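Re: that chain you flagged

S.,

Sorry for the slow reply, it's been a week of failed gels. I finally had a moment to sit down with the sequence you sent. For the record, here it is as I used it:
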Amino acid sequence: MLRHALLLLLLFTSAFLYADDDIYVAKDKDQYSSEKESIFDGNFERLALQINLASYHPGNADEYNQFNRGIGLEYHLDSFFLAGGYFWNSLYRDSFYAGVGKEVTFGDVEWIGVGAIGGLITGYNDGQEPRPALVPYVFLTKDRYTLKIHYLPELGDVEDDAIGFAVRIRFD
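Prediction finished late last night. Pasting the structure tokens below so you have them in one place:
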């Protein structure tokens, strides 16, 4: 299973090198050029609300919480985004997360793409002790709304694969 996770990581990393990631760049590129970019520029068009919805565990669906309600915020810069939030995890525990993510689309197709977020998460076997996490996903976008489909592989002390679903709503 470790080989599968490494293969996914390589796939997403290589996609980042070649894909077009200007999803959140303003129409007037001079206004938000990378020279003027600041994490705290007060631009609410770069802010998005993420609503965590559900998960599915193909191997042992009956053992897990499938309704993973939660809420988070994302702040998109030109080449990556910052994220943090809360959700009720599959083990029926509170989870908090914070991380950095990257999304890419392919060429002129902006409604579908891949992404990954890496950072720290709480609420699993270690209780509220933060642990590292890397979560790849695909996304489908229509106007301000994005459906994100996460994949969490069986890896280390994660006993079962999971597929998670979330909706992102941009504030623009």
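What I noticed first: The CA atoms of residues 19 and 106 lie 5 Å apart.

Talk soon,
D.
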